[in-house]
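Recap from last week: sequence in, structure out.
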Amino acid sequence: MKVLVSGKIKGTVLKSQDAINFLGTVDKKTGIISDKNHSLYEKSIKDTILVFPSGVGSSVGAYTIYSIKSNDTAPLAMICTKADLTVATGCALANIPLVVISEEEFSSISNGMKLTLDTDSTPQIQYQ
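Predicted structure tokens:
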């Protein structure tokens, strides 16, 4: 596990097998996935641990991540297998914990699972 933005949180996983384009997929005011072609369509990312393979899209997506945090509709943390510059910058601006995990670890996380993410001591994800 590689820590890009540190933090300690507990929450429930919302997992996507699809990459996320924060600019075109997430409603900034509600935190709901608005893209009809996305596997998380009409699901809210608010107060979840958002697990997804990677981000896609333009650098403006970083400001979308910052906006959802400002609007109190952001996830508690993000976990992905590849953090692109947009996701890393957005999480850093919004102070949303962000970690990068292996494909194997990604496969072991299920939608609805309860997790504790603690990057402050020895970085770890605890499954509950």
